[in-house]
Every structure is written in structure tokens, then in C-alpha cells.
Amino acid sequence: MEKSTGWRCFLDILIALGALVALPFAAQAVAADSAQAWPAKPVRFIVPFPPGGTVDPLARLLGARLNAALGQQFIVDNRTGGSGAIGTAIAAKANPDGYTYVFVFDTHAVNPSLIPNLPFDTVKDLAPVMLVGTAPMAYVTHPAKPYKSFGDVVKAAKAKPDTVTYGTVGSGSLGHLTTTLLQHSGGFKLVHVPFKGGGPMSTNVLGGQIEIGIGTVALLAPYVSSGRLRAVAVTGDKRSQAMPDVPALAEQGFPGFSALAWWGIFTPAGTPKPILDRFHAELVKVFNQPDLHKQLTEQLGMDLAVSSPQALQKWTVGEIARWSKVVRDNSIRAD
Questions:
Q1: What is the pLDDT averaged over residues 118-136?
Q2: What is the pTM of this model?
């Protein structure tokens, strides 16, 4: 009797161990099935900026292409405010089921050091999907102004400190931080004039109320190509394909300097990897479509990266480290 009972206990233990071993494989099978079925309902693309700009049209372009390819709706949900932090917080707290994604801009890496009590951890609460691309910013001026190069701006600022004004899309924006770095490096001082977005900033450069403006190539290229503004520099370490005649800062006394706007896609941490892999693969197919590739590179001035999730995470951590130091060292505060 005791021997029989002992064997039963032994068999029960083996069965239990077998079930434990099988659990991960069963979970993997369920996740794989979910990825094959994805998307089984509409997918939400959170854009933490208003319509217009560059992030919103990017999300809409991709949504339309994915809808055609996968037969499911990809709905753009604009949740604006806080330089992108409000919409990103909504995404970070969403159900990690593969049906919510957030499209971020370069402010994503600045916000952790600029916004007190950010309601999410930028690195831990979001899973990376893809670094879509990068693009330089451009310094522009009205054609009636005397600046033909960035060197002319530096010369004027040194001759008359605190008189040359420059506009950005806001305090703590990448344009503001980039110019702060350049001033330290070049030993000159400009007067910062922050605006509530690229529209008002561009209007004031066009009207001559400020001497210089800095914004993305995508924002400013139409004004430059029409002759309404003159570009004196781009902020990459090479020239932009959208402004091939405009020298980079690296060519104008700032060797190796580069500061790039960028676009990335994230999803809530904990989203099943098979679904992320499927979504990533579908994005790669879309970005490989020649007409879309041309549209993004020529109209938005992007250098497409179409990166792995790991590359986006590495990029984000590096950008956070770089710009948090600038914010901290210069006591920069948001508007």
C-alpha cells in the first residue's frame, strides 16, 4: 500500500513538472497565434501633436498604407500637449495588447529632463518599435537680412552681443538646445525668442521681426525653395538632400557637430513580442514602397532609418543623456 502511494506521488510530481515545462511552449504558441491573427480589430496610432507638422502626416501615411495591406483600420488619435508628453503618457498606460502605438518626435528625449514629474518612465514604460528616420534642422533668415552664412551670424553676435535674435518652436526645444550648444562652442551669444510652434516662428522670420529662425528642414524647405527665406546652415554633419546647396554646420567652423530631429514609434511595455515582430515586419514592407520612400525623403527631408527596436532604444537612451546634460548645465526650463 505504501509502495503504491509512493508511486502515485512520484507520478503526480512528474505530471506537474511536465505541465510546468509545457507552459512556456503553450504561451509561445498562443502568442504566435495572436500575432498571426493581428490585427483583428482597429489599431490606434496616438500622435501627441496637433494635425499638421511632421508627426501627424507620417502617422496618417503609414495608417493608410497598412490599412490597404492588412485590411484593418489604423486610427490616428491626436492627444496634444506637454511637448508630446501627454499623448505619450496615454500610450505608456494603455493595454499592452498590440493595438496601441505612439509616434514621437525629438522632444521625446528632452522631456524627461525638462518636465518635472513626468507621469511615465520614458525608457521602462515603453517598448521600442522603430526609429523611422532623422533629419537636420535649418537656420533661416529673411533675404533682406545681411546673413549669407552661419559665420555671418556668429560674427554679428560677437560684434554686438545680445542683439541678434533667434526664434525656436519653444524653450527646451531641440532648436533651443542645439543653439545653446553652438553658443558655448563658438563663444557667441544670441537672444532667444521662443514661440508656440513652427507656424508663429516662421511668420516672424518671414516678417523680419527676428533675425534668425531654426526649425526642421521639413518645416522650412518650402519657404527656402520659394525664395521667401534664406537658409544659412543645416544642423547635421552633412548636407540635407532637401537643401543640397546649404552648408552643414560641420562645414562652417563646427567640425563633427550634428543635432538631428527624429521620428520614432513606441508601444506600451509588455506588448507581446510576436505581435511587435509582425508589426515591425509590416512597417518595413511599407517603407520599402518606392513612392512612399520618395515622399518622406523629398517632402519631409528625412534620412530613413527603418531601424530595429534595439537600435531605437539605443538611440533614445543616447539622446536623453546628451540633451539632459544641456538642460541641466544651462538651467533650461519649459515654457
A1: 96
A2: 0.83
